[in-house]
Design brief:
204 residues; 2 domains; four-stranded antiparallel β-sheet
Length: 204
């Protein structure tokens, strides 16, 4: 979130959401590094925000704020917009930080693996897009705009397709970007055929 050589003091905020329905806890992990995968970066610390208001996956909004003061001390906080619950942690300059030699090594690695990291980043984005579509459609079918507009048989058809796809994702975490994109097209075709039949198009 905060790029290397950013002028301090500085503050950056990004909004995240939950992965599971009725998820009550949200873990924040803080890394330094420039690689796409967290495993290739240096973990500085972590904390947990608890007491998130129960809601379907993707509905809660959690602001994570990175604030670096003029002394280089990093304060990270997380706030659930609904419940206003908050938790935070502080990372000082001597807290699990990399040496200058280690930083130089990580920068060189980031340059060396730039192409591989981009492929990995695109693959993860495709996976996330497929998951988000499935979860969003599941919410709309069960609790949202489509709940009372589609008959039981066609509703079951969509739910079965979504559950099958989510299971496929679970068993194919390392599938290629193109495979995730193809699965998304397949799910969209099935869902849109039903929605068009009953609603004349997307009702949102």
């Amino acid at each position: 979130m905060v790029k290397r050589n950013t002028t301090i003091p500085t503050q950056h905020t990004r909004t995240f959401t939950t992965y599971n329905d009725n998820q009550s806890n949200f873990e924040v992990k803080i890394y330094e590094g420039e690689r796409s995968m967290t495993s290739d970066n240096n973990l500085l610390g972590s904390f947990e925000l608890s007491g998130i208001s129960p809601a379907p996956h993707g509905v809660p909004q959690i602001d994570v704020i990175f604030n670096i003061d003029a002394m280089g001390i990093l304060n990270v906080s997380a706030v659930d917009k609904s419940s206003r619950r908050e938790n935070k942690t502080t990372v000082t300059n001597d807290h699990a930080r990399l040496s200058q030699d280690e930083i130089g090594h990580m920068i060189r690695d980031a340059e060396r693996f730039r192409k591989e990291d981009e492929i990995q980043r695109n693959r993860i984005q495709a996976k996330n897009s497929l998951e988000s579509y499935c979860f969003d459609m599941k919410t709309k079918i069960n609790d949202g705009q489509l709940r009372d507009k589609i008959d039981a048989n066609n509703k079951k058809k969509i739910i079965n397709t979504i559950e099958y796809t989510l299971k496929w994702i679970e068993c194919n975490q390392f599938a290629e970007k193109e495979e995730f994109e193809q699965k998304l097209k397949e799910v969209e075709v099935i869902c849109l055929s039903v929605i068009t039949k009953f609603c004349g198009g997307m009702p949102w």
